């Protein structure tokens, strides 16, 4: 409410020094909380900035990477630039490629490895890169995910980082959802390898008690962002910017205008504190674990992928005679559960299986709600098997 009421339009430092300075401070705090490498801090060549969404975050770093590569290979090389990601990567990357002018045929979607909980296999990425290099193309961008949207898989960051470094490629990590969990020491290992990344993103507006929108992006070298995105029209010139002594976040993002979003994050951090925020995350993960145990205790169901965070991927096992492999059955179960108006679950498809997704992430969720949701799912499953 304060952020909206202050109505700050803080594009340049001069338009609101407080908004800019607080953003720098809060993102440094956050980076330290996540134990990001020191290069991502504001007193290093890197730094953090608040974007509206993870989609904007990946777009701006893709533009920075594109321009860095074109500078090396020449402007006419755009048609040769290739991006790599897994088939579990969020569609935000594809959209970013469309906006950035990456040729659609140069967007490599590497199939994730179902034996590794749908993380991408580094060997498959390496192989795709070798094929492209031998065709005279220029691999320039790898996007890894920590907590994929469908099943919260974690891509192997150290190996992908090595591949990126070996080919002078930009390495971006999308931790939009699961980044929040990594502030707990017991989940921080999922970020091992982040030291090899050029950029790292997580959404405070997903699982960090911060109102939409608030997507946190850190880069290891801010000069690439600024080179790709800065403009310097006469009407924005001012003493502070020209002395190069301040940060103008307009050069780290697509729009010019920007809101006082750091105030929201500052408020969350100051109000709760790190320990309470860690307990908040742990509680959700425990509730998801509880749900997972409930599913495992009913032989009519299966847990489809091992649960890493607060998302459980599960399904009702179809009778062996069902030729669709449980698609209709699970669709009907989801539809019945959602039509009750009591819970809302969503779905995905993994290796051809129609999978239901139970996610804990709301501040007021308690064990009784998880139990009630499970009972509802069990009852609906019973009705469905009765009508089969
Ligand atoms: N990346 C991941 C892993 C996501 O789960 C999502 C949203 O679900 C996004 C990116 C896109 O987020 P945004 O809506 O902030 O662009």
Automatic annotation (TrEMBL):
Keywords: Decarboxylase, Lyase, Pyridoxal phosphate. GO terms for cellular component: cytoplasm. CDD domains: DOPA_deC_like. GO terms for molecular function: carboxy-lyase activity; pyridoxal phosphate binding. Its cofactor is pyridoxal 5'-phosphate. It comes from the Eukaryota. One of its GO terms (biological process) is carboxylic acid metabolic process. The modification N6-(pyridoxal phosphate)lysine is found at residue 206. The keyword Lyase applies. SUPFAM superfamilies: PLP-dependent transferases. Belongs to the group II decarboxylase family. This is Tyrosine decarboxylase 1.
């Amino acid at each position: 409410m304060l952020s909206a009421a202050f109505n700050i339009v803080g594009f340049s430092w001069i338009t609101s020094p407080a908004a800019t300075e607080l953003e720098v401070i809060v993102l440094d705090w956050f980076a330290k909380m996540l134990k990001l490498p020191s290069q991502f801090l504001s007193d290093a060549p890197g730094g953090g900035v608040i974007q509206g969404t993870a989609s904007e975050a990946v777009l701006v770093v893709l533009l920075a990477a594109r321009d860095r590569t074109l500078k090396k290979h020449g402007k006419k090389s755009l048609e040769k630039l290739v991006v790599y990601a897994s088939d579990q990567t969020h569609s935000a990357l594809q959209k970013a490629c469309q906006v950035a002018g990456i040729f659609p045929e140069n967007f490599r979607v590497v199939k994730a490895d179902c034996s590794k909980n749908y993380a991408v296999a580094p060997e498959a990425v390496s192989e795709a890169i070798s094929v492209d290099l031998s065709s005279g193309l220029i691999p320039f961008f790898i996007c890894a995910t920590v907590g994929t949207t469908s099943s919260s898989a974690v891509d192997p960051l150290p190996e992908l980082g090595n591949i990126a470094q070996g080919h002078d490629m930009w390495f971006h990590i999308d931790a939009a959802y699961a980044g929040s969990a990594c502030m707990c020491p017991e989940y921080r290992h999922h970020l091992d390898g982040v030291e090899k990344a050029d950029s790292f993103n997580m959404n405070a507006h997903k699982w960090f008690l911060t109102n939409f929108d608030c997507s946190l992006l850190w880069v290891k070298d801010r000069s690439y962002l600024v080179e790709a995105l800065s403009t310097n029209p006469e009407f924005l010139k001012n003493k502070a910017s020209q002395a190069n002594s301040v940060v103008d976040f307009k050069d780290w993002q697509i729009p010019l205008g920007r809101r006082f979003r750091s105030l929201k994050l500052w408020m969350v951090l100051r109000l709760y504190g790190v320990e309470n925020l860690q307990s908040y995350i742990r509680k959700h993960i425990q509730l998801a674990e509880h749900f997972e145990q409930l599913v495992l205790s009913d032989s009519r169901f299966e847990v489809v992928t091992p649960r890493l965070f607060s998302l459980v991927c599960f399904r009702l096992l179809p009778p062996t005679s069902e030729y669709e492999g449980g698609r209709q059955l699970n669709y009907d179960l989801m539809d019945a559960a959602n039509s009750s108006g009591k819970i809302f679950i969503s779905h995905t498809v993994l290796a051809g299986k129609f999978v239901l997704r139970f996610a804990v992430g709301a501040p007021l969720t308690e064990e009784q709600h998880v139990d009630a949701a499970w009972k509802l799912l069990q009852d609906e499953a019973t009705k469905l098997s009765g009508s089969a």
